[in-house]
Amino acid sequence: MRLSIVIGALVALVASPGWAKQPALEVVEHVDLERYLGTWYEIASYPAWFQRNCTAVTADYSLRDDGLIRVVNSCRKGGLDGPLKQSSGRARVVDPTTNAKLQVSFFGPFWGDYWIIDLDPSYRWAVVGVPSRKYLWILSRTPTMDDALYREIVGRLPARGYTPNTLNRTLQPEQPEDR
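Predicted structure:
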């Protein structure tokens, strides 16, 4: 009896999507980092513990003197009028051929993947993911995005190994606030 329970549990684990081998995550062909710098508004994302109760989420990217990218993530905790929380970090390009594969660090020597997997040719929106498919962000240069464009972007996610129904829309103010 015990052996059948153990075997059943192992079969369930191996058959679960988390254990299935994902195809390689494709990134965009090329990112012009100068054009990518600036402020991005989070339109939607996979739930992440470090963004719990966040609204009005933004990411500001600027070039540092050492060639790395300064990252300042901001959000309002608990609502649009909630207290401003910010986290500063740095990013580095790990694939200089495309500039689409980066790593970010907010805690000392620990780095996490930040891959640009979809990007508007005019740099009005971007989609960022990670090879494990655990995290996903849809970003825009404006705090809101046209619903038809959002559906178009989301419609491409399954082909990249992402589950669209896991996305949470991010509450943003109608107008960008002064930063």
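Summary: The two ends are 63 Å apart (CA to CA).
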